Input
Amino acid sequence: MDDRAAEVTCRFGDFLLDLGARALFRLDASGVPKAVPLGSRAWDILRVLIERDGGFVSKHEMMDAVWPNVAVEENNLTVQMTALRRVLDRGRSEGSCIQTAAGRGYRLLTAVTRSTDMASAGAKAVV
Output
């Protein structure tokens, strides 16, 4: 990860993703970020989806990014994607924010805003 990642926070829906701190926060009704527990592999999957900016990421690309130089079964990706969806889709009435397209891969359907101004949001979060 480069030095810029340590300064960038991404906002999508009611979430903030602090790339430098490797932390995910959900904004409550008053806009206060609250830490959301997320396993390291699910976090890595989310980071890859954010970096692709709405574009598809193939299963092969995702597995190489999340488990570099490690032979893993495809079901590991499925399990981690399910865990990530469980967190991101909680309370959503319009369906999952992650699209799966057979033969193409996965993509994040929610618009992402990147900012260096929000980078300190995690420091003010309620844990």
Q: What stands out?
A: Strands lie at 9-12, 15-18, 23-27, 33-36, 98-101, 105-108, 113-115. DSSP finds three helices and seven strands in the chain. Residues 90 and 122 are 21 Å apart (CA to CA). Helices lie at 40-52, 59-66, 74-88.
